[in-house]
Amino acid sequence: MKTFFWILIFLGTFSFMEFMAWFTHKYIMHGFLWSLHKDHHHKDHDSWFERNDTFFIFYAIVSMSLFYTGANGFWYGYPLGFGILAYGIAYFFVHDIFIHQRFKIFRNANNWYARGVRRAHKIHHKHLGKKDGECFGMLVVPFKYFKK
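-> structure tokens emitted (148 positions)
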């Protein structure tokens, strides 16, 4: 029974992280921490790293902290930590590798999901300022972006 709850917590955490990504992106990155996120929209730097990468570090620390609690008797810490970690890996592959091509792989992916996610992200990036943005999610985007 513990395995069932472990899997349920892991899947729930992974799913909840899409909401957290949307919320963080809309209200924090495009809000009071725009100073860390704006270089992602403007590309006014020569470095491979962006100030925006700070948000990955934050969630990595949360995930590692949950692993620590799991190792110290709070078994829920493991599935929570792994759910956040798995979402971070999925986000990195979809956002940084597939969409922004920080590594030059997955360039030829052209299925309906790939096209929809790319369209949604392109619409998001057409707004260079912190206001008037749209489509703040990553893995789940509105259906209209999947239509031709």
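The chain has a mean pLDDT of 84.
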